[in-house]
Amino acid sequence: MLRSHPQTSKRLLPRTHKHHNVISLRKSSITLLVASLLMILPSLVVGFNFRSSSLRAIHQHRHRHIHQVTAFVSTMKRNNPSSTNNRDTKRHHGMTSKSVEDTSSASPSSPPLYLAEGLLAVHKPLTWTSNDVVAYIRGILTRDAKDRNAGGGNDNNNNNKRGRGRNKKQMMKVGHGGTLDQLASGVLVLGIGKGTTQLQSYLEGDKQYVAVCELGYETTTLDAEGDVVKEMEWAHVKSVKGGSDSDSTNTSSVEGVLSKFQGKIQQVPPLYSAIRVDGKRLYEIARKGDVNSDDVEIPTREVEVYGVKACASLEEDVVRSGVVDGRKYREAVKAMKDAESEAAAKALAEGGDDKVDANDEGGETKKHDNADGSGGGDKKKKYSKKRNDKDNKKNMFSDTTVPSISADNCTLELPQFALEVQCGGGTYIRSLVRDIGYELDTVATMTGLVRTKQGPFVLEDALRREDWNAEKIYAAIKRV
Protein backbone atom coordinates (compact mmCIF):
# COMPACT_ATOMS: atom_id res chain seq x y z
CA MET A 1 0.00 0.00 0.00
CA LEU A 2 1.46 3.25 -1.09
CA ARG A 3 1.44 6.14 1.21
CA SER A 4 1.42 9.76 -0.04
CA HIS A 5 4.13 11.89 1.14
CA PRO A 6 2.66 14.37 3.57
CA GLN A 7 4.89 17.34 2.45
CA THR A 8 3.99 16.85 -1.19
CA SER A 9 0.29 16.96 -0.56
CA LYS A 10 0.65 20.02 1.56
CA ARG A 11 2.64 21.81 -1.12
CA LEU A 12 0.45 20.97 -4.13
CA LEU A 13 -2.90 21.73 -2.67
CA PRO A 14 -2.25 25.45 -1.91
CA ARG A 15 -0.71 25.95 -5.40
CA THR A 16 -3.77 24.62 -7.14
CA HIS A 17 -6.02 26.82 -5.05
CA LYS A 18 -3.98 29.96 -5.84
CA HIS A 19 -4.11 29.31 -9.58
CA HIS A 20 -7.85 28.98 -9.41
CA ASN A 21 -8.14 32.34 -7.65
CA VAL A 22 -6.06 34.14 -10.35
CA ILE A 23 -8.26 32.82 -13.12
CA SER A 24 -11.38 33.89 -11.28
CA LEU A 25 -9.96 37.42 -10.77
CA ARG A 26 -9.20 37.81 -14.47
CA LYS A 27 -12.68 36.70 -15.43
CA SER A 28 -14.16 39.21 -12.99
CA SER A 29 -12.02 42.09 -14.44
CA ILE A 30 -13.05 41.27 -17.99
CA THR A 31 -16.65 41.08 -16.96
CA LEU A 32 -16.42 44.44 -15.23
CA LEU A 33 -14.75 46.06 -18.26
CA VAL A 34 -17.39 44.75 -20.62
CA ALA A 35 -20.13 45.93 -18.30
CA SER A 36 -18.54 49.41 -18.18
CA LEU A 37 -18.33 49.60 -21.95
CA LEU A 38 -21.95 48.56 -22.25
CA MET A 39 -22.88 51.33 -19.84
CA ILE A 40 -21.03 54.19 -21.65
CA LEU A 41 -21.77 53.04 -25.19
CA PRO A 42 -25.22 54.65 -25.31
CA SER A 43 -23.71 57.98 -24.24
CA LEU A 44 -21.11 57.86 -27.01
CA VAL A 45 -23.77 57.07 -29.58
CA VAL A 46 -25.93 59.94 -28.37
CA GLY A 47 -23.00 62.40 -28.45
CA PHE A 48 -22.04 61.36 -31.95
CA ASN A 49 -25.60 61.74 -33.13
CA PHE A 50 -25.79 65.23 -31.51
CA ARG A 51 -22.59 66.40 -33.19
CA SER A 52 -23.73 65.05 -36.52
CA SER A 53 -27.04 66.84 -36.19
CA SER A 54 -25.25 70.11 -35.27
CA LEU A 55 -22.97 69.93 -38.29
CA ARG A 56 -25.94 69.14 -40.45
CA ALA A 57 -27.76 72.21 -39.12
CA ILE A 58 -24.77 74.47 -39.75
CA HIS A 59 -24.43 73.15 -43.28
CA GLN A 60 -28.10 73.72 -43.96
CA HIS A 61 -27.88 77.29 -42.60
CA ARG A 62 -24.89 78.04 -44.79
CA HIS A 63 -26.63 76.61 -47.79
CA ARG A 64 -29.70 78.79 -47.16
CA HIS A 65 -27.42 81.91 -46.84
CA ILE A 66 -25.66 81.14 -50.12
CA HIS A 67 -29.01 80.66 -51.78
CA GLN A 68 -30.21 84.06 -50.51
CA VAL A 69 -27.06 85.81 -51.76
CA THR A 70 -27.38 84.12 -55.14
CA ALA A 71 -30.98 85.25 -55.41
CA PHE A 72 -29.99 88.85 -54.52
CA VAL A 73 -27.24 88.89 -57.16
CA SER A 74 -29.64 87.54 -59.76
CA THR A 75 -32.07 90.33 -58.94
CA MET A 76 -29.31 92.94 -59.32
CA LYS A 77 -28.32 91.47 -62.68
CA ARG A 78 -31.86 91.81 -63.96
CA ASN A 79 -32.12 95.41 -62.70
CA ASN A 80 -28.66 96.54 -63.98
CA PRO A 81 -27.59 94.52 -67.01
CA SER A 82 -24.63 96.86 -67.80
CA SER A 83 -22.90 96.00 -64.54
CA THR A 84 -23.39 92.32 -65.33
CA ASN A 85 -21.63 92.74 -68.65
CA ASN A 86 -18.72 94.58 -67.04
CA ARG A 87 -18.41 91.92 -64.35
CA ASP A 88 -18.57 89.13 -66.86
CA THR A 89 -15.90 90.88 -68.92
CA LYS A 90 -13.60 91.20 -65.90
CA ARG A 91 -14.17 87.56 -64.96
CA HIS A 92 -13.53 86.50 -68.54
CA HIS A 93 -10.13 88.23 -68.51
CA GLY A 94 -9.28 86.89 -65.06
CA MET A 95 -9.14 90.36 -63.45
CA THR A 96 -10.22 91.37 -59.97
CA SER A 97 -11.70 94.76 -59.22
CA LYS A 98 -8.39 95.87 -57.71
CA SER A 99 -6.40 94.87 -60.77
CA VAL A 100 -8.83 96.76 -62.99
CA GLU A 101 -8.41 99.89 -60.88
CA ASP A 102 -4.64 99.55 -60.92
CA THR A 103 -4.57 99.35 -64.72
CA SER A 104 -7.24 101.97 -65.36
CA SER A 105 -4.65 104.73 -65.69
CA ALA A 106 -2.91 102.75 -68.43
CA SER A 107 -6.14 102.00 -70.25
CA PRO A 108 -6.31 103.47 -73.75
CA SER A 109 -9.71 104.96 -72.90
CA SER A 110 -8.28 106.94 -69.94
CA PRO A 111 -6.80 110.33 -70.94
CA PRO A 112 -3.06 110.63 -70.15
CA LEU A 113 -1.87 112.96 -67.42
CA TYR A 114 0.52 114.69 -69.86
CA LEU A 115 -0.23 115.43 -73.49
CA ALA A 116 3.54 115.72 -74.01
CA GLU A 117 6.63 115.26 -71.83
CA GLY A 118 10.01 116.86 -72.30
CA LEU A 119 11.72 120.25 -72.16
CA LEU A 120 10.73 123.77 -73.13
CA ALA A 121 11.97 127.32 -72.61
CA VAL A 122 9.78 130.02 -71.10
CA HIS A 123 10.52 133.69 -70.57
CA LYS A 124 10.91 134.56 -66.87
CA PRO A 125 9.53 138.05 -66.21
CA LEU A 126 11.17 140.56 -63.90
CA THR A 127 10.36 140.27 -60.15
CA TRP A 128 9.26 136.63 -60.56
CA THR A 129 11.33 133.94 -58.89
CA SER A 130 12.12 130.79 -60.81
CA ASN A 131 9.92 128.83 -58.41
CA ASP A 132 7.06 131.27 -59.09
CA VAL A 133 7.23 130.34 -62.78
CA VAL A 134 7.34 126.61 -62.02
CA ALA A 135 4.31 126.85 -59.73
CA TYR A 136 2.37 128.92 -62.29
CA ILE A 137 3.05 126.49 -65.16
CA ARG A 138 2.25 123.50 -62.94
CA GLY A 139 -1.09 125.10 -62.04
CA ILE A 140 -1.98 125.58 -65.72
CA LEU A 141 -1.19 121.97 -66.61
CA THR A 142 -2.90 120.59 -63.49
CA ARG A 143 -6.12 122.44 -64.26
CA ASP A 144 -5.93 121.23 -67.86
CA ALA A 145 -5.52 117.61 -66.67
CA LYS A 146 -8.49 118.03 -64.34
CA ASP A 147 -10.64 119.44 -67.15
CA ARG A 148 -9.71 116.41 -69.28
CA ASN A 149 -10.39 114.07 -66.33
CA ALA A 150 -6.89 112.73 -66.85
CA GLY A 151 -4.61 110.93 -64.45
CA GLY A 152 -6.31 112.07 -61.26
CA GLY A 153 -5.64 115.73 -62.04
CA ASN A 154 -6.34 117.84 -58.98
CA ASP A 155 -6.39 121.62 -58.95
CA ASN A 156 -5.40 121.68 -55.30
CA ASN A 157 -1.98 120.07 -55.09
CA ASN A 158 -2.08 120.24 -51.31
CA ASN A 159 -4.64 117.44 -51.36
CA ASN A 160 -2.02 115.11 -52.76
CA LYS A 161 -1.40 113.27 -49.50
CA ARG A 162 1.24 110.58 -49.48
CA GLY A 163 0.53 107.06 -48.40
CA ARG A 164 -3.10 106.78 -49.46
CA GLY A 165 -2.56 103.83 -51.75
CA ARG A 166 -4.75 103.66 -54.81
CA ASN A 167 -6.69 106.81 -53.82
CA LYS A 168 -3.51 108.88 -54.13
CA LYS A 169 -3.69 111.65 -56.75
CA GLN A 170 -0.92 111.91 -59.31
CA MET A 171 1.31 114.96 -59.01
CA MET A 172 2.15 117.03 -62.09
CA LYS A 173 5.98 117.06 -62.31
CA VAL A 174 7.46 120.41 -63.34
CA GLY A 175 10.97 121.71 -62.58
CA HIS A 176 13.49 124.28 -63.85
CA GLY A 177 17.07 123.93 -65.06
CA GLY A 178 18.79 126.90 -63.43
CA THR A 179 17.73 129.71 -61.11
CA LEU A 180 17.38 133.30 -62.26
CA ASP A 181 17.23 136.06 -59.63
CA GLN A 182 14.10 138.14 -59.19
CA LEU A 183 15.60 141.17 -60.96
CA ALA A 184 16.76 139.02 -63.91
CA SER A 185 14.74 137.95 -66.92
CA GLY A 186 15.12 135.73 -69.94
CA VAL A 187 15.37 132.04 -70.80
CA LEU A 188 14.27 129.58 -68.13
CA VAL A 189 14.34 125.92 -69.15
CA LEU A 190 11.52 123.82 -67.71
CA GLY A 191 11.12 120.07 -67.56
CA ILE A 192 7.64 118.54 -67.82
CA GLY A 193 7.06 114.93 -66.70
CA LYS A 194 9.99 112.79 -67.87
CA GLY A 195 11.79 115.95 -68.93
CA THR A 196 12.62 116.72 -65.28
CA THR A 197 15.21 113.93 -65.36
CA GLN A 198 17.27 115.89 -67.93
CA LEU A 199 17.41 119.22 -66.08
CA GLN A 200 20.72 118.50 -64.33
CA SER A 201 22.58 118.76 -67.62
CA TYR A 202 21.18 122.27 -68.10
CA LEU A 203 22.34 123.32 -64.63
CA GLU A 204 25.88 122.36 -65.62
CA GLY A 205 25.70 123.35 -69.30
CA ASP A 206 26.79 126.56 -71.00
CA LYS A 207 24.71 129.73 -70.94
CA GLN A 208 24.76 133.23 -72.45
CA TYR A 209 23.90 136.45 -70.63
CA VAL A 210 23.71 140.18 -71.19
CA ALA A 211 24.53 142.09 -68.01
CA VAL A 212 24.11 145.83 -67.46
CA CYS A 213 26.73 147.21 -65.06
CA GLU A 214 27.52 150.49 -63.34
CA LEU A 215 30.89 151.73 -62.07
CA GLY A 216 31.50 153.66 -58.87
CA TYR A 217 29.66 151.69 -56.18
CA GLU A 218 29.30 148.15 -54.82
CA THR A 219 26.34 146.69 -52.91
CA THR A 220 25.94 143.89 -50.40
CA THR A 221 24.24 141.65 -52.95
CA LEU A 222 26.38 142.82 -55.91
CA ASP A 223 23.19 143.87 -57.72
CA ALA A 224 20.60 146.66 -57.55
CA GLU A 225 18.73 145.16 -54.59
CA GLY A 226 21.50 145.50 -52.03
CA ASP A 227 22.68 148.41 -49.90
CA VAL A 228 25.72 150.37 -51.05
CA VAL A 229 28.80 149.38 -49.03
CA LYS A 230 31.64 150.78 -51.19
CA GLU A 231 32.06 153.83 -53.38
CA MET A 232 35.09 154.70 -55.52
CA GLU A 233 36.07 157.14 -58.23
CA TRP A 234 35.66 155.83 -61.76
CA ALA A 235 36.50 158.88 -63.94
CA HIS A 236 39.82 157.36 -65.08
CA VAL A 237 37.82 154.83 -67.12
CA LYS A 238 37.37 156.81 -70.32
CA SER A 239 35.49 154.41 -72.58
CA VAL A 240 33.76 151.08 -72.87
CA LYS A 241 35.61 149.95 -75.99
CA GLY A 242 39.15 150.71 -77.07
CA GLY A 243 42.51 149.97 -75.53
CA SER A 244 44.80 147.05 -76.15
CA ASP A 245 44.07 143.68 -74.62
CA SER A 246 47.80 143.00 -74.56
CA ASP A 247 48.43 145.96 -72.25
CA SER A 248 47.94 144.44 -68.80
CA THR A 249 48.05 147.87 -67.11
CA ASN A 250 45.36 149.45 -69.28
CA THR A 251 42.47 150.62 -67.10
CA SER A 252 41.19 153.41 -69.36
CA SER A 253 38.58 151.18 -71.00
CA VAL A 254 36.42 148.30 -69.89
CA GLU A 255 37.40 146.23 -72.90
CA GLY A 256 41.06 146.59 -71.98
CA VAL A 257 40.85 144.24 -68.99
CA LEU A 258 38.44 141.60 -70.26
CA SER A 259 41.13 139.25 -71.56
CA LYS A 260 41.95 138.34 -67.95
CA PHE A 261 38.46 136.96 -67.47
CA GLN A 262 38.34 134.41 -70.25
CA GLY A 263 39.02 130.70 -69.99
CA LYS A 264 39.16 128.91 -66.67
CA ILE A 265 39.33 131.42 -63.82
CA GLN A 266 39.05 131.38 -60.04
CA GLN A 267 35.94 133.10 -58.72
CA VAL A 268 34.63 133.98 -55.25
CA PRO A 269 30.81 133.56 -55.15
CA PRO A 270 28.69 136.43 -53.76
CA LEU A 271 27.84 136.53 -50.06
CA TYR A 272 24.17 136.37 -51.03
CA SER A 273 24.22 133.02 -52.82
CA ALA A 274 23.21 129.42 -52.22
CA ILE A 275 26.78 128.17 -51.76
CA ARG A 276 27.24 126.18 -48.53
CA VAL A 277 29.95 127.11 -46.01
CA ASP A 278 30.24 124.99 -42.86
CA GLY A 279 26.89 123.41 -43.64
CA LYS A 280 24.99 126.70 -44.02
CA ARG A 281 23.90 128.65 -47.08
CA LEU A 282 25.78 131.91 -47.51
CA TYR A 283 22.57 133.93 -47.74
CA GLU A 284 21.50 132.48 -44.37
CA ILE A 285 24.74 133.74 -42.82
CA ALA A 286 24.31 137.14 -44.50
CA ARG A 287 20.78 137.61 -43.12
CA LYS A 288 22.04 137.58 -39.54
CA GLY A 289 23.06 141.22 -39.98
CA ASP A 290 26.35 143.13 -39.62
CA VAL A 291 28.04 140.55 -41.83
CA ASN A 292 29.91 141.37 -45.02
CA SER A 293 32.00 139.39 -47.45
CA ASP A 294 35.18 140.22 -45.51
CA ASP A 295 33.78 138.57 -42.36
CA VAL A 296 33.08 135.23 -44.07
CA GLU A 297 35.73 133.03 -45.63
CA ILE A 298 34.11 132.15 -48.93
CA PRO A 299 36.05 129.46 -50.82
CA THR A 300 37.02 130.23 -54.40
CA ARG A 301 36.05 127.86 -57.16
CA GLU A 302 36.98 127.34 -60.75
CA VAL A 303 34.55 128.45 -63.45
CA GLU A 304 34.94 128.74 -67.19
CA VAL A 305 34.17 131.81 -69.28
CA TYR A 306 34.13 131.02 -72.99
CA GLY A 307 33.82 134.62 -74.08
CA VAL A 308 33.12 138.12 -72.72
CA LYS A 309 32.58 141.34 -74.68
CA ALA A 310 31.90 144.93 -73.58
CA CYS A 311 29.06 146.84 -75.21
CA ALA A 312 27.71 150.40 -75.12
CA SER A 313 24.16 149.53 -76.24
CA LEU A 314 21.51 146.85 -75.85
CA GLU A 315 19.74 144.81 -78.50
CA GLU A 316 16.02 145.28 -78.93
CA ASP A 317 15.11 141.73 -77.86
CA VAL A 318 17.17 142.15 -74.67
CA VAL A 319 15.38 145.38 -73.76
CA ARG A 320 12.03 143.77 -74.54
CA SER A 321 12.89 140.91 -72.16
CA GLY A 322 13.18 143.39 -69.28
CA VAL A 323 16.31 145.08 -67.93
CA VAL A 324 16.25 146.91 -64.61
CA ASP A 325 17.37 150.54 -64.75
CA GLY A 326 19.77 150.64 -61.81
CA ARG A 327 19.64 154.39 -61.20
CA LYS A 328 15.87 154.68 -61.32
CA TYR A 329 15.51 151.54 -59.21
CA ARG A 330 17.70 152.92 -56.42
CA GLU A 331 15.86 156.24 -56.51
CA ALA A 332 12.47 154.51 -56.30
CA VAL A 333 13.57 152.27 -53.45
CA LYS A 334 15.01 155.24 -51.55
CA ALA A 335 11.77 157.19 -51.99
CA MET A 336 9.70 154.26 -50.70
CA LYS A 337 11.96 153.77 -47.68
CA ASP A 338 11.85 157.48 -46.87
CA ALA A 339 8.06 157.39 -47.04
CA GLU A 340 7.94 154.39 -44.70
CA SER A 341 10.29 156.07 -42.22
CA GLU A 342 8.23 159.25 -42.31
CA ALA A 343 5.02 157.30 -41.69
CA ALA A 344 6.62 155.42 -38.78
CA ALA A 345 7.92 158.66 -37.22
CA LYS A 346 4.49 160.24 -37.59
CA ALA A 347 2.82 157.26 -35.92
CA LEU A 348 5.34 157.38 -33.09
CA ALA A 349 4.78 161.13 -32.61
CA GLU A 350 1.04 160.51 -32.32
CA GLY A 351 1.69 158.12 -29.44
CA GLY A 352 1.08 154.86 -31.24
CA ASP A 353 3.23 152.09 -29.82
CA ASP A 354 1.91 149.42 -32.12
CA LYS A 355 2.29 149.04 -35.82
CA VAL A 356 -0.55 147.39 -37.69
CA ASP A 357 -0.12 146.12 -41.21
CA ALA A 358 -3.41 145.36 -42.93
CA ASN A 359 -2.00 144.79 -46.40
CA ASP A 360 -2.11 141.01 -46.19
CA GLU A 361 -4.53 138.95 -48.19
CA GLY A 362 -7.96 138.52 -46.72
CA GLY A 363 -7.61 141.52 -44.41
CA GLU A 364 -5.34 139.63 -42.02
CA THR A 365 -3.48 141.97 -39.68
CA LYS A 366 -0.12 141.71 -37.96
CA LYS A 367 0.38 143.52 -34.67
CA HIS A 368 3.88 144.16 -33.37
CA ASP A 369 5.08 145.81 -30.17
CA ASN A 370 8.10 147.31 -31.94
CA ALA A 371 8.55 148.87 -35.33
CA ASP A 372 10.86 146.05 -36.43
CA GLY A 373 8.42 143.35 -35.39
CA SER A 374 10.66 141.93 -32.68
CA GLY A 375 8.29 142.57 -29.78
CA GLY A 376 6.43 139.93 -27.84
CA GLY A 377 2.85 141.13 -28.30
CA ASP A 378 -0.01 139.25 -29.93
CA LYS A 379 0.98 138.30 -33.41
CA LYS A 380 -0.92 136.60 -36.19
CA LYS A 381 1.53 134.73 -38.30
CA LYS A 382 0.99 134.43 -41.99
CA TYR A 383 2.69 131.33 -43.26
CA SER A 384 4.16 131.41 -46.73
CA LYS A 385 6.30 129.06 -48.73
CA LYS A 386 9.97 129.55 -47.90
CA ARG A 387 11.91 130.57 -50.96
CA ASN A 388 15.51 129.93 -51.74
CA ASP A 389 16.32 133.44 -52.93
CA LYS A 390 19.46 135.31 -51.95
CA ASP A 391 17.72 137.57 -49.43
CA ASN A 392 14.22 136.02 -49.14
CA LYS A 393 12.55 139.42 -48.97
CA LYS A 394 9.44 140.54 -50.77
CA ASN A 395 10.11 142.62 -53.85
CA MET A 396 8.67 146.12 -53.76
CA PHE A 397 7.65 146.08 -57.43
CA SER A 398 5.77 143.92 -59.90
CA ASP A 399 6.92 143.05 -63.41
CA THR A 400 4.96 146.04 -64.76
CA THR A 401 6.01 148.63 -62.15
CA VAL A 402 9.71 147.86 -61.71
CA PRO A 403 11.88 150.65 -63.21
CA SER A 404 13.28 149.31 -66.48
CA ILE A 405 15.33 150.50 -69.42
CA SER A 406 13.02 151.58 -72.23
CA ALA A 407 13.41 150.66 -75.89
CA ASP A 408 13.99 154.29 -76.89
CA ASN A 409 16.90 154.61 -74.45
CA CYS A 410 18.96 151.48 -75.02
CA THR A 411 22.28 153.34 -75.50
CA LEU A 412 24.48 153.24 -72.42
CA GLU A 413 26.99 155.84 -71.28
CA LEU A 414 29.63 155.53 -68.57
CA PRO A 415 29.45 154.78 -65.74
CA GLN A 416 26.96 152.31 -67.29
CA PHE A 417 28.02 149.63 -69.75
CA ALA A 418 26.95 146.15 -70.83
CA LEU A 419 28.70 142.77 -70.97
CA GLU A 420 27.89 139.85 -73.24
CA VAL A 421 29.04 136.70 -71.47
CA GLN A 422 29.15 133.08 -72.57
CA CYS A 423 30.08 130.78 -69.69
CA GLY A 424 29.76 127.36 -68.15
CA GLY A 425 27.55 126.27 -65.27
CA GLY A 426 28.17 127.69 -61.82
CA THR A 427 29.45 131.07 -63.02
CA TYR A 428 28.14 134.08 -61.06
CA ILE A 429 27.83 137.11 -63.35
CA ARG A 430 27.58 139.37 -60.29
CA SER A 431 30.98 138.19 -59.13
CA LEU A 432 32.41 138.61 -62.63
CA VAL A 433 31.25 142.25 -62.74
CA ARG A 434 32.70 142.88 -59.26
CA ASP A 435 36.10 141.48 -60.27
CA ILE A 436 36.14 143.53 -63.50
CA GLY A 437 35.54 146.62 -61.40
CA TYR A 438 38.48 145.74 -59.16
CA GLU A 439 40.67 145.23 -62.23
CA LEU A 440 39.67 148.73 -63.39
CA ASP A 441 40.87 150.15 -60.03
CA THR A 442 37.33 150.95 -58.99
CA VAL A 443 34.17 149.08 -57.99
CA ALA A 444 31.21 147.94 -60.08
CA THR A 445 27.74 146.48 -59.58
CA MET A 446 25.49 144.49 -61.89
CA THR A 447 22.16 146.34 -62.19
CA GLY A 448 20.36 144.18 -64.77
CA LEU A 449 20.65 140.68 -66.22
CA VAL A 450 19.06 138.84 -69.14
CA ARG A 451 19.73 135.18 -69.95
CA THR A 452 19.70 135.01 -73.73
CA LYS A 453 20.56 131.34 -74.23
CA GLN A 454 20.65 128.09 -72.28
CA GLY A 455 21.74 125.01 -74.13
CA PRO A 456 19.87 124.92 -77.45
CA PHE A 457 17.14 127.29 -76.20
CA VAL A 458 17.38 130.96 -77.20
CA LEU A 459 15.53 134.07 -76.08
CA GLU A 460 13.55 134.43 -79.31
CA ASP A 461 11.97 130.99 -78.85
CA ALA A 462 11.11 131.34 -75.14
CA LEU A 463 7.39 131.19 -74.45
CA ARG A 464 6.30 134.55 -73.06
CA ARG A 465 3.81 135.03 -70.25
CA GLU A 466 0.91 136.07 -72.49
CA ASP A 467 1.24 132.69 -74.24
CA TRP A 468 1.24 130.58 -71.09
CA ASN A 469 -1.64 128.19 -71.67
CA ALA A 470 -1.83 124.41 -71.83
CA GLU A 471 -2.13 124.22 -75.62
CA LYS A 472 0.93 126.39 -76.34
CA ILE A 473 2.97 124.87 -73.52
CA TYR A 474 2.49 121.35 -74.87
CA ALA A 475 3.16 122.54 -78.41
CA ALA A 476 6.49 124.08 -77.34
CA ILE A 477 7.77 120.96 -75.58
CA LYS A 478 10.75 119.17 -77.11
CA ARG A 479 9.78 115.58 -76.45
CA VAL A 480 12.10 113.10 -74.77
Describe the model.
With 480 residues, the chain is α+β, with helices and mostly antiparallel strands. Helix content is 35%, strand content 18%. The strands form four sheets. Strands 1, 2, 3, 4, 7, 10, 13, 14, 15 and 16 form a ten-stranded mixed β-sheet that branches. The chain has a two-stranded antiparallel sheet with strand order 5-6. Strand 11 and strand 12 (366-368) form a beta hairpin. Helix 1 crosses helix 2 (81-92). The chain is elongated.
Question: Can you tag this structure with a few keywords?
Answer:
480 residues; ten-stranded mixed beta sheet; two-stranded antiparallel sheet; 35% helix; 18% strand; elongated
List the helices and strands and how they pair.
Blueprint: H1 6-79, H2 81-92, H3 97-103, E1 118-124, H4 130-147, E2 174-176, E3 184-192, H5 199-204, E4 207-215, E5 217-219, E6 228-231, E7 263-267, E8 276-277, E9 280-281, H6 282-286, E10 301-311, H7 316-321, H8 326-349, E11 355-357, E12 366-368, E13 416-423, H9 429-439, E14 444-454, E15 457-458, H10 470-476, E16 478-479
Parallel strand pairs: 3-14
Antiparallel strand pairs: 1-3, 1-16, 2-3, 4-13, 4-14, 5-6, 7-10, 8-9, 10-13, 11-12, 14-15
Helix pairs in contact: 1-2
